Amino acid sequence: MEKANIDWSSLSFAYQKTPMRYVAEYKNGAWGKGQLTDNATVQLSECAGILHYCQEIFEGLKAYTTKDGHIVTFRPDLNAERMINSAKRLEMPPLAKEQFLEAVDEVVSANAAWVPPYGTGASLYLRPLMFATGIVIGVKPADEYQFRLFCTPVGPYFKGGAKPITICVSDFDRAAPNGTGHIKAGLNYAMSLHAYVTAHENGFDENMFLDPATRTFVEETGGANFLFVTKDKEVVIPKSNSVLPSITRRSLVYIAEHYLKLKVTERPVRLDEIGDFAECGLCGTAAVISPVGKVVDHGKEIAFKSGMEKMGEVTQELYDTLVGIQLGTIDAPEGWIRRIK
Ligand code: PLP
Ligand code: COI
Predict the structure, then answer these.
(1) CA distance readout (Å), 4 to 8, 111, 153
(2) How confident is the model over 264-311, as pLDDT tens digits?
(3) What pLDDT digit, counting tens, does each position of 166-182 carry?
(4) Which of 157, 184, 220 should be mutated for ligand 2, with most atoms under 8 A from CB?
């Protein structure tokens, strides 16, 4: 198979249209059989539910070329499960896990020429999404939906790749107590955009959102979970009901405990204690692990010992192990890698 003519190593995290995507429709109380299409355009009624009451959920996962030349995806079953949970919370019809996995396999296979080669640092980002196509004018769930899964080759989420970033403590909340922060719904991201633009205008790369009830605990950023490392190499994960249960973070917890034999603690983390940590990172499918060098809390700088030049030592070990598992140079735990080709 001949690869697409792309300078893979200079890709950023941006969309480019690839040949094929998967589409399935929900009508008359059931999901139809999905199919591949080359049509990247969606046509909707002006009264479609998505345009008014925001019934939209999505996922993000990646396909990689391994060192021995296979094309694989990383834990897509967990994305399927999370999308089912997201659908239930927004009163949307869940898509069966098997159909989700079929869509992943078909889209990756059909766009195999667009899966970045091993060693380029790039990957194929898959974006499954589901939205209300049915007509609603009174506030209620729609009765028709579309599931779509497209892909685009991507490089690092943050410019500069593994270089530490600076983030600010946001004055805005991305989630509400007992709200939808724990599901992957577009509405959460709409909530975060003003904070995102404000942070960028002020020269920061991202926001640290705090718990919406008390604004004293660390939650997450607009697109990734936090992890911290103490001076004694203990990995600390902020626990909260209103952050997205990141698949990358859950995988890193396993890697820290079982591969690196580190102690991991999941507990609420207070903003006023983060200066005690030696390392900080953002983890997610797009972010992988992006090191944070500094957090700025309304002018007060909290710098991590790992500094602004490189990743902290433990963060680097976690990163290397995760990426090694994804690229097939380190043995994966049972069931983590789904081979497509
Ligand atoms: N938190 C938010 C708000 C996200 O959008 C993402 C991205 O999916 C994550 C965390 C990381 O989750 P995952 O590791 O499953 O990609
Ligand atoms: C991901 O990491 O897959 C995300 O969805 C984060 C971001 C691009 C919104």
Answers:
(1) 9, 9, 10
(2) 999 999 999 999 999 999 999 999 999 999 999 999 999 999 999 999
(3) 999 999 999 999 999 99
(4) 157
Say if strands 165-169 and 206-208 run parallel, antiparallel, or are unpaired: parallel
Q: Is the CB of 60 under 6 A from ligand 1?
A: yes
Buried b (16+ CB within 10 A) or exposed e, 166-177: bbbbbebbbbee
Each residue of 77-135: pLDDT tens digit?
A: 999 999 999 999 999 999 999 999 999 999 999 999 999 999 999 999 999 999 999 99
Distance CA 115, CA 109 (A): 9
- Average pLDDT (209-222) is 97
Containing H/E element for 254? helix 247-254
For 293, the enclosing helix (H) or strand (E) is strand 288-297
User: Which tokens sit at 122?
Assistant: 């790039």
**In angstroms, rounded to a whole number, what is the distance separating the alpha carbons of residues 163 and 262?**
24
Q: Would the CB of 224 count as within 6 Å of ligand 1? A: yes
Which residue of the set 33, 184, 231, 310 is catalytic? Answer: 184
Cα distance between residue 316 and residue 313, in whole Å: 5
